[in-house]
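Objective 1.3, modelling of assemblies. Example input:
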Amino acid sequence: MLRYSEQKISGWGRYPAPESCRVVRPDMMREIELPEDQFIARGLGRSYGDAAMNRDRYVISMERLNRFLAFDGEHGIVTVEAGVTLEEVLEYFIPRGWFLPVTPGTKYVTVGGCVACDVHGKNHHRDGSFGEHVNRIKLMLADGSIVKCGPKEHPEIFWATVGGMGLTGLILEVTFRLIPIRSSFMNVCYRLTQNLDDTLKQLKEADEENYSVAWIDGFSPGRGVLMFAEHASFESLEVRNTDPITLPWGAMGKCFNPYSMRVFNMLYYFLYRNKQGRQIIDYNHYFYPLDGVNQWNRIYGKKGFLQYQCVFPHDRAKEGIQTLLSQGLNPYLIVIKCFGKGNPGYLSFPMEGVTIAMDLPNQGPTLFEKLKRLDRVVLGLGGRIYLAKDACLEPEVFERMYPRLEEWLKVKESVDPQWRIQSDLSKRLFRRHK
Amino acid sequence: MKSPVLVLGATSTIAREIAYALSKKGYPLVLTGRDSEELQKLSRDVAIRSDLPAPYFVFNAEDVSSCHQMVDNVLSKHQKLSGVVSAFGYLGDQQQAEKDPNEALKIMQCNYVGTCLILDACANHFVDKKEGWIIGLSSVAGDRGRQSNYLYGSAKGAVNLFLQGLRNRLHTHGIKVITVKLGFVDTKMTFGKSGMFLVASPKDVGSQIADLPEKNSDVVYLPRFWRYIMGVIKLIPETLFKRLKL
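Predicted structure (C-alpha cells):
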C-alpha cells in the first residue's frame, strides 16, 4: 500500500481554501496503486479552483511521472508520461527547433493537465486547443485496466478525456505533435485601442495573425492593448528561463487593492503606448510573462482570488463583456481573445466567439452572489464557463452550459460506473448524478 | 565530446536527477542498477532529453563476486570514463533487520560492500588514465550511529571511511573523490513521514551534485545546513547520546 501524506491542498487561486487531502505520489508507473476510496489525479496544481483537490479523500500526484518515452525527430511527435511539464518540453525541444502546438499562459503545468483541461492559447483562432494536437492518450481506468485512445481509437473515451477534468481515468501517457520553428524569438506587434468596440473589431479581424490576445483596463473600461505575434524566421534557438523572484506570503495582499490596481492598470496602458508597433521579443517574455514571478498568486493574500473566465458567441460578446465590466467587480487583470471553432470534446470549453478572463480578488460572500448571477447571464447569452478556472458554478447552470454533458456522462458511467474518480469540482457540479 | 559518466543505482529519484543534470552538462551516461524495466525507461528518457545515447545494463550491488568484472565490461565498451557516481543505496527495514540476518546482510552489501568493490575497480581505471572523478552518495545517518537506523547508518559510515581512504590514495594521482552526505530529500524515503523538516528537492540536489566535479570539495553536506546540524550532533557526549531516542 503506497504511503499517503495528509496535506492541505488547494487550487492556484487558493479558493476554495486548502483542504486536507490524502496525497499519494508514485515515483514510477509500476507504483501506481489505485486507492480503495475516491481519488483524483493532480499535476502542478495550476487550475484555479477545486479541480485537483479532494477533501478527505485521495489525490494522486503525478509529478514524479515525468519521463520522456519516445520522440520522432522527423515529424516532431513526442510521447511523455503525464507529469512532464511544458517547461521541460520547451527546455529540451526548442534547441532542436520545435515548439508547443498550443500553450496556456504558464509553462508550469503538466501535459496530463493540459489534456484534462483541454487548454487553449493565444493561437486558438487558428490552431484550436491542446487536445486537437494529441495523437493518443494512455489512460488507467478506475478498475485499474489500461485503455489507449485517440481520435480514431475509442474516440468517445478520447473526447471525454480531453477537457474531462481527469474524471475519466488517470492519464498516464500522452503522445502529441510539436510544431517546427526556426527561431525562439517572436515578432510582436502592440497596438493601443480606445474602446471595447475597437478592441473586439480588431481582434476579430486578426485572423491571419498566428497569436493574438488583448489586455483591457478594468478600471477604465474599454481601452486596451492588442498583442499580436508570430514566430520569427531568423535562425536563433535559445531556451529562456528568467530566474523567478518569489513573492513573500500574505503581506502582499494589503499592497494590492482596488486603488493600487487602478493605478497599475493605468501605468500598464501608458507603458504600452510607448511600445506600439513591431518588435522582437523572446518566447518566454511573450507567452509566460507571469512565470517570472514565482507564487504570484500570493499577491491576493490568504483570502485568495478567483479567475472568472467565460466565452460568449460573437454576436453577444460585446453585450456580455460590458455586463461583466459593469458589476463593480474590480478585476485586477482582464484578457480577451477570439476563439475559433470548438472541438468534439464533450466538456471542452472553447467555442467560436470571444473569451474573457478576469482576476478577481476574493472580497467575500457578495462576490459569490454576483458571480452566480453572472453565471446565469453568461448562460442566457449562449456562453459558458471554463472549468479549469471555476470555483463556484452551480450544477443547474453548468448542465445547461455544456449541451454534450449527457454524452460525457454516458462515457463516465461506462468507464467508472461507481464514480470512484472524483474531485471537489465533480462533487460540486455533479451533485445529481452520483 | 566528453567521456561518459557511469551512474550506479541510476533509477532512484535522486540518481535520475543527477543523470539529467550531468547530461545537461554534456556528459554521455552509462546507467546501471537492478531494475531492468526502469533502467530501460530511464535510458530512453535521458537519450531523448540529451540527444545522446544512454546505454544501460542490469547489475545488482549484492552480486559482489562480479563487481570487478562489471567494471571491466563497461571499460571494454567505452574505453574511458569521465567519472563515476555511486548512488547505490538501500534503506532497508531496521526492525526487520534486527531479527532477520538476510535483511541485515542486504543493507550492508548494497550500501557498503558492493559500492566499495566497484569504486575500487573504477579507481584502478582512473589511476591508469590519470584522470577522472568519483562521487559517492552517502547519508548524514553515517555520521553517528543511532538506535532507529544503525544498520543503514553504519554501512553509510563505513562508506564514508572508505571514500576518505580512497581520496587519500588517489590524491597523488590527481583524481577527485567526493563524499556527498545527504540530509532529508523529498523522495519516497521521506514522503509522508513525520519529523521531516526543510526537505530538499531532488532536482536541486541533483544539479548541485552534478556541479561538484568542477569544484574542489571533499565532503559535502546537502542541503548545506546539515553540516552544522551534524556538527552539533557529533559533539553530544556518548553518555548523553546513548540515552536519546533519535
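The first strand of chain B starts at residue 5 and ends at 8.
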